[in-house]
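Table S2 (continued). Query chain:
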Amino acid sequence: MVDSVCSCNVAFYRVCKSWVRKPVSLVTVSGDKSACEGEGTLCVEVDGKATIVKALISSFKPLGVDVILGMNGIYALGG
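Corresponding output:
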């Protein structure tokens, strides 16, 4: 899912093969804090263009999807 309001990428831990457990959190648009499991990298491909992006790692599917592609992911893909 693409979210141009979100500044960073957020990924469900099962889709990220390389991540490090560390205390990180994010603040939702409603002002609520959401704890994450750590940080990692993942490969994202859109319309045949692939790139590696950093992501916050979640123990649950954020908004019910595997990955939220935030602004840093959009920029990495040339958008």
